[in-house]
């Protein structure tokens, strides 16, 4: 599936993602059209495949970004946090900063997005990529989007974690569901997380899960599909 939504332009890529039902919600489509991937992936930005962003990691493929966002709806849009100002979203392993920007577009002007990245140079790259567009600069200047260096296995550092998050996106495969992430999830709230398959012993088999916390605090876990992400690890020295 990695190549099948590729396009020569942003409009063509988004059109193909819609035609292939990777994007089914018009709000997601509009957000994709408003953030130019070329600011985040310098080579082949409209190819539906992961691209190197240095440091041994990749910007995820467009169809994976689409699936992640689709599965986080409706926790990332303004009505998710009605009466509380706007949704608060955590993007762990922010890498290129692309998804952080996309989530900010969906969250609306009252929303907040925190990107956590453990490679400090990449954290800075994410911020710099976002500053390439007027819309991105506005999110940074308003404080609506913040990039911080940290170990995402612990969630967001304090005080950014205060109040919790309506949605948590994890962009690298976790060895397990870290309790800090569940602790930082609001009720109701949803985590989108790739995790190593149980008993896999490092063979690289992973699955994406959604972890839902209902209004009464009940937690439900659902396996979605098999994937290949870079691992959620210790920071390289
Ligand atoms: N959503 C990003 C994904 C980048 S790849 C994008 O599409 O651009 C995964 C990212 O997770 C990498 O940038 C990697 O450095 C980061 N990462 C890995 N382990 C981490 C950890 N423990 N804490 C924070 N970030 C981590």
From TrEMBL:
CDD domains: AdoMet_MTases (cd02440)
Keywords in alphabetical order: Cytoplasm, Methyltransferase, S-adenosyl-L-methionine, Transferase
Enzyme Commission code(s) on record: 2.1.1.77
Principal cellular location given in the protein's record: cytoplasm
InterPro entries found in the cross-reference section: PCMT (IPR000682), SAM-dependent_MTases_sf (IPR029063)
Family: Belongs to the methyltransferase superfamily. L-isoaspartyl/D-aspartyl protein methyltransferase family.
Protein name, entry field: protein-L-isoaspartate(D-aspartate) O-methyltransferase
């Amino acid at each position: 599936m990695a190549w099948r939504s590729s396009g020569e332009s942003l409009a063509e890529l988004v059109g193909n993602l819609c035609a292939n039902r990777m994007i089914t919600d018009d709000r997601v489509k509009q957000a994709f059209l408003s953030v130019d991937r070329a600011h985040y992936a310098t080579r082949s930005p409209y190819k539906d495949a992961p691209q190197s962003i240095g440091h041994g990691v990749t910007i995820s493929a467009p169809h994976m970004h689409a699936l992640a966002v689709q599965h986080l709806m409706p926790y990332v849009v303004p009505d998710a946090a009605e009466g509380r100002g706007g949704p608060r979203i955590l993007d762990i392993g922010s890498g290129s900063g692309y998804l952080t920007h996309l989530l900010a577009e969906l969250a609306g002007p009252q929303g907040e997005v925190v990107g956590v990245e453990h490679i400090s140079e990449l954290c800075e790259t994410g911020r710099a990529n976002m500053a390439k567009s007027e819309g991105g600069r506005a999110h940074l200047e308003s404080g609506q989007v913040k990039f911080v260096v940290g170990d995402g296995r612990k969630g967001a550092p304090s005080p950014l974690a205060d109040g919790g998050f309506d949605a948590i996106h994890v962009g690298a495969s976790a060895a397990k569901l870290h309790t800090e992430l569940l602790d930082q999830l609001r009720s109701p709230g949803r985590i989108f997380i790739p995790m190593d398959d149980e008993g896999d012993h490092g063979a690289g088999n992973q699955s994406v899960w959604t972890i839902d916390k209902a209004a009464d605090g009940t937690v439900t876990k659902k396996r979605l599909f098999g994937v290949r992400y870079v691992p959620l690890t210790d920071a390289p020295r």
